[in-house]
Design goal:
heterodimer; A: 7-stranded mixed β-sheet; 6-stranded antiparallel β-sheet; 18 strands; about 20% strand; B: mainly alpha
Chain lengths: ~600, ~190
């Protein structure tokens, strides 16, 4: 066993006098990928990241035992994590008037919040207004990839051509065949663990060694197979065999740390943008990284009407600065890129840059969560302890609705994420006390199994974010106002999700201990998508199939905002495959001088 | 081969458990009186808290309980660090002080004795009454019991004894191979067993 531990490369200072080939805003999955692909093609890239570069190994400390931490892993007591009910009861901005020193999104209410406290933002500094929304943001090098859930799934033509299938919304301007070679490249460059199933609606990746299923999961898999449904080991964006071309990332050693915290992997077996993409790009000598750089506007060359660079604020000094580039690539996360476009107003672009269609901020979609089921397998109660959490994830049940059949009550589909078995922290919600209570927890720990649904939310023009006319963030920059509520399709889908989850467990002979049907607050999935969508028609879309602005040809938006529909599959792998494809195209244009 | 920490603790736990079952009131009261004041709780409060946590998660033949895992001290140190300027934190502190007093009062009401001076049977009766109200707690003592139980479970199952001895957790270690069943070894999808 060897652990790879290479020091982060030292970035060279940014030269704001020069004009870079590309300015990339954001350093998460999309920004990292843009930097990787463009530097690979030989272009000089300046990456602007609003947050800090953290000493991430010191933050995560993945193997620290709870009893070795003074607060058993909890963040300082002066901080507060928003609770589920606070998202609906409280007025926005949520942190306004709260007495806490810092306020965080709900993910800081999970175990081990001390390890992610510097990764997620303080809501006091980053307010937003409008309708209830659980907006989880990470402002630091790598963004949310530092703590993501690792489920790495492909989309298929059931998603790209969904409108042709059921008549709702729009098809994507690409098909699976366009993206498949880029999914392959992402798989090979970053590593993904999984088991091939040959499903047309959830294409297989180029998998490394799969994680395994434990006894309760095998039972559920066998039972589902009888109704021709699938349970497959968690498809994890984790290198389980190692990557010969990356010295910053070790292979997975099944330490199980990913399950008991908000996430994060201090040996970087789980993909994160810094070690997976940015450090190698820095090593090419063509990437310049500037952290603490808060972008506030895409600047315009008045003579040509093209983007000239990015105006930003230095987080330390508060000074206004500008970086110049031949192209501007926005990758600040779906809603932050959208906000930046809306902020970039000029006489030529009165409603924000690249917004002649009026669609920037609209067609907002994501995944709906809430319904799920928990239970236990009787035969496993009291059995000797096994290692169940020594893997990057449990299982995934791919979509099965509206593939061949047509549900009368809703369109599109949902999948389930789940897991089973003993973990570091047992389920302690049992009645009573004393020896029986203690024994019950002990004997039940290996027998539990649970899963929760992720459903496709339909994009609607009226589901939107706008700039708030008054509210500003800590740096005086206008913030987003949400106008977004789940609709009838999502509600009916969730009713089916709840009922089907229970039926699946019952048919497998799993004793159901709790079944949830309530829908969680909008935003809970942390999968915001669609607010600068791609399309062939510049009147109804913001970007073309290469994530290039219809209006400003040297402006690219390479994050989840470009997605035409949400699908029910987790988006990170698709974000990176699309970005790779677009940056290949962009490199070609740059070479030909056509941007 | 060395004697593992677990074996030592097992011995310690069984030694502690033996006199626990029919323990006379006086002995208990003495044991309680031996505890110093905490950083947040007074000596009598900490003694009561210690006894309550141990009753919720007791030592048994399998492992040590909340007392061995120093759960009361853990709760004490956490509450001590709470900033009383923050309303929610101050309220949690106050609930704890008032809750302990309410349980003591419930004991007095039943037997005329404070909780630590009451017989083991009487103490058990007090807690059983509180536990019976868990689904919908009404009184201060009932609500506090629920909260106390959560804190006790939190403190116990994040302790060395809780994780290693009681739950025999085997993870958080470097594994050469994932545990479990390789799905490739299972019958093909769609085919009944």
């Amino acid at each position: 066993m060897t652990l790879l531990r290479a020091q982060a490369p030292t970035p060279k200072p940014a030269d704001l006098q020069r004009r870079y080939d590309a300015i990339v805003v954001g350093s998460g999955a999309a920004g990292g990928m843009a930097a990787h692909v463009l530097t690979s093609h030989g272009f000089d890239v300046l990456m602007l990241e609003a947050g800090k570069q953290l000493d991430i190994e010191a933050e995560l400390r993945s193997m620290e035992w709870p009893y070795d931490h003074p607060r058993r892993g909890e963040m300082p007591y002066s901080s507060h994590a928003l609770r589920l009910n606070e998202y609906t009861i409280r007025e926005l901005p949520y942190a306004k008037g709260m007495p806490w020193k810092s306020v965080h999104s709900y993910v800081q209410g999970w175990g081990g919040s001390d390890y992610s406290k510097n990764i997620v933002v303080d809501e006091k500094e980053h307010p937003y207004t409008g309708t209830s929304y659980a907006w989880v943001r990470a402002r630091c090098l790598g963004g949310k990839t530092n703590i993501w859930g690792r489920l790495a799934l492909r989309l298929s033509d059931y998603d790209f051509k969904a409108s042709s299938h059921d008549g709702y919304g729009d098809d994507w301007p690409i098909s699976y065949a366009d993206l498949a070679p880029y999914y392959d490249r992402v798989d090979m460059y970053l590593g993904i663990a999984g088991h091939p199933e040959g499903l047309p609606h959830l294409p297989d990746s180029r998998f490394q060694r799969s994680t395994r299923l434990n006894a309760a999961e095998v039972r559920l898999r066998q039972s589902l197979a009888r109704s021709n449904r699938v349970l497959t080991p968690y498809r994890a964006g984790v290198t389980t065999d190692g990557l010969k071309h990356n010295k910053y990332r070790s292979r997975c050693f099944g330490r199980g740390a990913c399950g008991r915290r908000a996430g994060g992997c201090d040996i970087h077996a789980a993909f994160d943008s810094p070690t997976g993409l940015i450090y190698p790009a820095l090593d090419t000598g063509r990437l310049t990284l500037r952290t603490g750089s808060i972008a506030r506007e895409v600047t315009l060359d008045p003579a040509t009407g093209r983007a000239s660079g990015v105006a930003f604020m230095d987080a330390q000094s508060g000074r206004s600065l500008e970086a110049r580039g031949r192209v501007v690539v926005l990758a600040a996360s779906t809603l932050e890129s959208t906000r930046l476009m809306l902020l970039s107003r000029s006489p030529r672009h009165p409603d924000g840059i690249g917004n002649s269609s009026g669609h920037v901020g609209h067609n907002f979609s994501e995944h709906v969560m809430g319904p799920g089921v928990s239970g236990f397998v009787k035969d496993l109660v009291g059995k000797p302890r096994t290692v169940d959490d020594g893997r990057p994830g449990g299982f995934y049940v791919p979509r099965f609705r509206n593939l061949k059949d047509r549900r009368p009550d809703f369109i599109r589909g949902y999948g389930f994420e789940g897991g089973s078995g003993a973990s570091m922290f047992p389920e302690t919600q049992a009645p009573g006390f004393g020896a029986e209570y203690k024994k019950g927890i002990r004997e039940m720990a290996g027998a539990t199994i649970g899963m929760g649904g992720f459903g496709e939310v339909l994009p609607r023009y009226e589901s939107a974010v706008f700039l708030d006319p008054q509210a500003v963030d800590k740096w005086g920059i206008p913030v987003l106002r949400f106008s977004f509520k789940f609709g009838d399709n999502e509600k009916k889908m969730c009713a089916d999700m709840a009922q089907t989850a229970r039926e699946m467990f019952e048919e497998a002979g799993i004793e159901v201990t709790s079944a949830r049907s309530e829908i969680r607050t909008e935003g809970w999935s942390i999968h915001e998508l669609g607010t600068a969508r791609m399309g062939a028609d510049p009147k109804t879309s913001v970007l073309n199939q290469f994530q290039q602005s219809h209006d400003v040809r040297n402006l690219f938006v390479v994050d989840g905002s470009s997605h035409v529909s949400a699908s029910c599959q987790n988006p990170t792998w698709t974000i990176m495959a699309l970005c790779w494809r677009s940056c290949d195209y962009l490199a070609d244009r740059l070479r030909k001088g056509e941007v | 081969m060395t004697v593992s920490r677990r074996d030592v603790l097992k011995l310690a736990a069984s030694a502690a458990a033996a006199p626990l079952l029919p323990r006379p009131v006086a002995a208990l009261a003495n044991a309680a009186a031996g505890l110093p004041a905490g950083r947040f709780f007074s000596a009598p409060e900490l003694a009561l808290l210690d006894e309550l946590t141990e009753l919720i998660i007791p030592a048994d033949e399998h492992s040590g309980g909340a007392r061995a895992a120093a759960v009361a001290g853990y709760i004490d140190s956490r509450l001590f660090e709470y900033d009383p300027e923050l309303p929610e934190r101050r309220a949690a502190r106050e609930r704890f002080k008032a809750g302990l007093a309410a349980i003591d009062a419930a004991s007095r009401e039943g037997s005329g004795q404070g909780f630590l001076s009451a017989s083991p049977e009487e103490r058990l009766r007090v807690l059983q009454a509180l536990a019976a109200a868990e689904p919908s707690p009404q009184t201060e003592a009932e609500r506090f019991f629920k909260e106390l139980k959560e804190w006790t479970a939190d403190g116990y199952y994040t302790s060395r004894i809780g994780i290693h001895d009681e739950m025999e957790y085997k993870g958080n270690s470097m594994l050469a191979e994932f545990a479990g069943t390789d799905p490739a070894s299972l019958p093909p999808r769609g085919e009944p067993r």
